[in-house]
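Appendix C reproduces, verbatim, an entry submitted by the partner laboratory led by Prof. M.T., so that reviewers can inspect both the input and the predicted structure.
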Amino acid sequence: MAKEFGLLYELLMDWVYEKVGDHRYKGADLKSFAAEHAISDETAIHLRQYGMNEGGVDDKWATPRRPAVSLTLKGLELVAQRRKFLAPSVERNKAARRAVLRQVWLDDEAGLRWSFTRVVVGTREATVAGYALSARELDRAAGYLKSKGLINGYTGSFEGPEQAQITAEGQDCMENYNGDPDLYEGRGRIGATYNTYLPNAQGVIVGEQQNFTQNNTAGIDPSAFIQLAGYVGQISSTLGLAEADRVELQRVAQELHNESTSPAPQSGRMRQIAGQIKDRLLEAGTTMAATVGIQMAEQALATLAH
């Protein structure tokens, strides 16, 4: 998992703004940023130089004993732009929880006894709609996961455990509920028999429509998933994705369509695929089409929690 200077630069500017506000004549301690974001002091120095080359930060208030960093006028403008386009906090909180839980689970699978919960800061895995999750958001996520019994660990100076271990409940959440704590909390509720009829249901192929009838006794109403798959298939070419990403999104939508229209749809499989679609839509940006798709995915996933 590689940390990306572009994401760390974004976080650095936002962090400096939190420390000194819009004051361009004050600096923040670069070593504090390094400690909070799980990078070395040397990496932080390189990051500051990267930011200076990009024009967003400066080192004019630094001293030999205190490597400081301050914002330029361009940096202030970039921070304002970033905050304007951030996804709603509830969506960022959920994404942070999934990112932390996934990392702790991966470390456990790799045989590591402890996982550093902040290791995902500045990585592509800890982004929502292209914007990085902050160290504070990931801390809160770790605290939430611990309170729900999905991880355990010692909580020191941060809001959540700095080092954590996956629990049996956390493994179950990752492996059977797509790493979504909200869905995991709603597990174990048995549904009824569903008789589903969708006239002129949109297919995954653009322009495709068909009447769909299904009877199943699996306690699952697949209609929201069928509609999600059809909608994503219709809008995939409008999201501005690279061709390879568009083809992959189309493939996953078709996979969801196939599963949800099967004679015996599996809730775990639909949950997993719909979660993948939601994550890909989040990565696609903040267009209206993507936002509607994200909402449809959440509504579909919520039906499995009841």
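The mean pLDDT is 83. Additional entries are available on request from the coordinating office.
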